[in-house]
Amino acid sequence: DAGVIQSPRHEVTEMGQEVTLRCKPISGHNSLFWYRQTMMRGLELLIYFNNNVPIDDSGMPEDRFSAKMPNASFSTLKIQPSEPRDSAVYFCASSLDLGNNQPQHFGDGTRLSIL
Amino acid sequence: GNSVTQMEGPVTLSEEAFLTINCTYTATGYPSLFWYVQYPGEGLQLLLKATKADDKGSNKGFEATYRKETTSFHLEKGSVQVSDSAVYFCALRFTGRRALTFGSGTRLQVQP
User: Fold this and answer.
1) Do A56 and B89 touch (CB under 8 A)?
2) Gyration radius of chain B over CA positions
3) What per-residue string of b and e applies to A31-44 under the rule 16 or more CB within 10 Å gives b?
4) For a Cys staple, B17 with which of A26, A32, A81, B13, CB 3.0–4.6 Å?
């Protein structure tokens, strides 16, 4: 079974550039989450969607960050303009929303380096 | 507020040693509790979970018991292997909230 698929796996770009991270959740899952992992702050929830609708975006650090989920099988996280402090590993996760006991399944992450 | 506290790592053990990674939480209410494992270069994988007090989650020789009285969910394994070397995250989720709250992670290094 295909798990959560993220692309790209690695991205290196110069500050000021636009960065787009992509995620394909597990088919049939209706909740999708974006996390950021850094050494300093650990794992932070940025935003999550349920049935393609953003439910909680309080973790999005600032207006430079935006996320969309145009359909049930695709989501993007965009940073524009990017800054060196955005360097981190960004994880996407999905879950089947049938109660609170459903685990989240994580992708392998996108390692982002902003120079 | 609601939070998860894990013991700091790295934890370094010899193969076949006994493992305990402590996890305590602060919460209003009764969350579900999870342990996730992250191997180098990979995403997090669910290791085990417990959804109510006194539940014991177990998988791959690991186990953890949901202790409401001590608000703890310590991870244990009787005999670790080199392949268990990874970062372990304790997490919780509250009723009505889909997102997980993670601890800071504990790195385990098992030496042959």
Assistant:
1) no
2) 13
3) bbbbbbbeeeebbe
4) B13
| Tokens read off for B11 | 């934890």
Q: What distance in Å separates the CA atoms of residue A97 and residue A86, rounded to the nearest whole number?
A: 30
Read off the DSSP letter of residue B67.
Answer: B
Cβ separation A43–B102 shorter than 8 A: yes
Decide if B45 and A4 are in contact by the 8 Å CB cutoff: no
What whole-number distance in Å separates Cα of residue B95 and Cα of residue B47? 21
DSSP state letter for A14: -
Q: What is the pLDDT of residue A1?
A: 63
DSSP state of A86: G
Query: Per residue of chain B (112 residues), what is the pLDDT tens digit?
Result: 678 999 888 999 999 999 999 999 998 778 889 999 999 888 899 999 998 899 999 999 999 999 999 999 999 999 999 999 999 999 988 766 667 889 999 999 999 9
Residues of B in contact with A30 (CB under 8 A): none
Residues of A with CB under 8 A from a CB of B: 4, 6, 31, 33, 42-43, 45, 48, 50, 55-56, 91, 93, 95, 97, 100-101, 103-109
